[in-house]
Amino acid sequence: GNDSKTIGPVPTFSVWDYVVFIGIVVGASGIGLFQAIRSRKETSSEEFLLGGRQMTAVPVAMSLTASFMSGITVIGTPAEAYLYGTAFWLFGFSYALMSIVTAELFVPLFYRLRITSAYEYLEMRFSRPIRIIGTSMYIVQTALYTGLVIYAPALALNQITGLDLWGVLVATGAVCIIYCTVGGLKAVIWTDVLQMVVMLVGFVAVIARGAVVQGGLTKIFEDAGEGGRLDTFDFDPDPRKRHTFWTIVIGGSIMWASIYSINQSQVQRYISCRTLGHAKMALYINMVGLWVTVSLAMLSGLTMYSIYKKCDPITNDDVATSDQLLPYMVMDILADYPGIPGLFVAAAYSGTLSTVSSSINALVAVTMEDFIIPLWKNRTEKQVTWLNMGLSVFFGALCIGMAGVASLMGTLLFQAALAIFGMISGPLLGLYLLGMFFRTPNSIGSLSGLLIGLALTLWVGIGAQIYPATADKTNPLLLTVIGCNSTMSQNHTTQPPWTTACVIFSASVRPPLADSWYSLSYLYFSVLGVIATMVSGFLISAATGCKQEKLSPTLFIRKSDLICFGGCRTSEVTLCALVIF
Questions:
Q1: Where does the source fall among the domains of life (predicted)?
Q2: If 493 and its partner were Cys, which of 132, 219, 279, 320 is the partner (CB 3.0–4.6 Å)?
């Protein structure tokens, strides 16, 4: 392989790239509109928000996968492998545990209760105020996350094409708003299927071309091994180390469980399945989809390392942040193939579209179900439909605003996104588990538990954002610029003027907590939230007396829910066998 690389200005988009890119984005929106027009006859609220509860397992599974394989994942995970090695691969275990927990505990419960909003359960089990607090937490978390999701690919696009950062942000929001407003959930699910395919093809193109440039996949693995990128298993129990076997398998499982089991964007999808069997099946297929995606992303990152092992674009100032590495490499090795870079950017971008549109759709569903419908008695279907559309526009605009906030968050968008989930979903998951497994917890205790858990996770999470952990905790691997022939660098990265202020603020003085409490691995935020919420919720419930009004037994997990073979059909039994082996 040619080890010394001349890094000059990387080519920008060709005409064909723009054609492919625009084609895919328009195609995606087209599917949304087509679905909408096709099902115009049934414009009930149920149809708009739940796809009429008629979806089958495979499209829903692809949609579940696509919505979390957002642009952040497409861009962030390869950079993760490039900088820190393949520990991230261990998330394969987390995905498996998460899928089993969600499919065997939460799905049967939600199906039995026939709910639209995951937070309806909180009212059935506890009280109306708890439901409202749960919903509000979800809205805050989703708006923040969606802001990050819009910001990540915009940053990458800005790097490659030199398109204006804010122009891209607003355009993204606009496209999503259009097909959420018109299409509802069916549009979202079918567009996701297309986008999933585009994303995987994008990864494969990068890996294949990289392997050709470097002289085979074995060469890529040799380079990665020499660079220490293949030390996947680290059994150090220290909770402050960013990625170890334990933080990923324990912390990662709980964090992904909190995303998949109680996050409205996901719950909404599997509730839209025809039968319980389809819903469970969708989760297991989704698990395989996540495995494939994370593996391809890791491989892309190793390919990137193999190509840039002698000349790191970050140190050499060719890219501004690690999130721009993958787009940079795509332009570098695929520019001779007109249309392929366009395909790739479309992949990252369609990941964003799918996540943003599903977030908007879920935010609308939750707001309608939990805030508006209970308050507004004499409404007509037509008014509801118009309100649905209005809310789609409102939340779309809110998310674009949050993208502005995201530009303040500094590096590693991927980690920031998962940290937000950990901080907010962790305590919520604790609340659900309290309600599902135990009869003792009452409203007062559980609410106090939730607030205590939230206070703790926000304290540690915001602390970690202000005082980032030092390198001995995060363990970045070595990078070098020995082989750089030219120092010509081109940056069209427009850096927002306010990023520097945050950095100065953090570096000045580190409080004693910075290296112990604030250095907690971001994957443990959710674990902390779950444990704090459950323990304090239990104790306070016991203290405030457990005179429970009669609760229906359907609100709790049954014995039959726990056993996979509890009267399920052959298809599910074989699936369980597959999962076990």
A1: Eukaryota
A2: 320
Q: Which residues have C-beta within 8 Å of that of residue 507, sequence separation ≥ 6?
A: none
Counting other chains too, the contacts that 435-439 makes at CB distance below 8 Å and 24 or more residues apart are 435/121, 435/122, 435/125, 435/126, 435/555, 436/105, 436/109, 436/125, 436/555, 436/556, 436/557, 437/556, 437/557, 438/538, 439/548, 439/551, 439/556
Residue type, 395: F
Return the exposure string of 28-48: e unless at least 16 CB atoms fall within 10 Å of the residue's CB, then b.
bbebbeebbeebeeebebebb
pLDDT > 80? residue 187: no
Q: How many CB atoms lie within 10 A of CB 109?
A: 20
CA distances from 486 to 64, 131, 308, 482 (A): 44, 59, 14, 11
Distance between CA 444 and CA 261 in Å, rounded? Answer: 24
Convert the pLDDT of each residue in 199-240 to its tens digit.
Answer: 888 889 899 999 999 999 999 999 999 999 998 888 989 888
CB 220 within 8 A of CB 316: no
Three-point CA angle 354, 338, 175, nearest 5°: 25
Burial (CB count within 10 angstroms: exposed 0-12, middle 13-18, buried 19+), residue 511: exposed
**Residue 426 has what pLDDT?**
94
In DSSP notation, 62-117 reads HHHHHHHS-HHHHHHHHHHHHHH-GGGGGHHHHHHHHHHHIIIIIHHHHHHHT-SS
Sign of CA dihedral 98, 102, 105, 106: positive
Distance from first CA to last CA of the chain, Å, rounded? 39
Q: Which two tokens stand for residue 425?
A: 């979903």
**Residue 352 and residue 191 in contact, taking contact as beta carbons nearer than 8 Å:** no
Asked if 526 contacts 251 with a C-beta cutoff of 8 angstroms, the reply is yes
- Tell me how many degrees the CA angle 507-510-513 measures, rounded to the nearest 5: 145
How far is the C-alpha of 425 from the C-alpha of 446, rounded, in Å? 15
Q: Are 404 and 147 in contact (CB under 8 A)?
A: yes
Structure tokens at 316: 């050499």
> From CA 15, how far away is CA 18, in angstroms rounded?
5
Tokens of 375: 């308050």
Alpha carbon 204 to its chain centroid, in Å, reads: 21
In the predicted structure, residue 484 carries a pLDDT above the cut 90 = no
Q: What are residue 55's DSSP bridge partners?
A: 273
Q: Find how far residue 351's CA is from the centre of its chain.
A: 10
CB 494 within 8 A of CB 165: yes
Cα–Cα distance, 122 to 383 (Å, whole number)? 27
| Other C-beta atoms lying within 10 Å of the C-beta of residue 509 | 8
3-state secondary structure of 376: coil
Q: Are 464 and 549 in contact (CB under 8 A)?
A: no
Strand partners, 5: 484
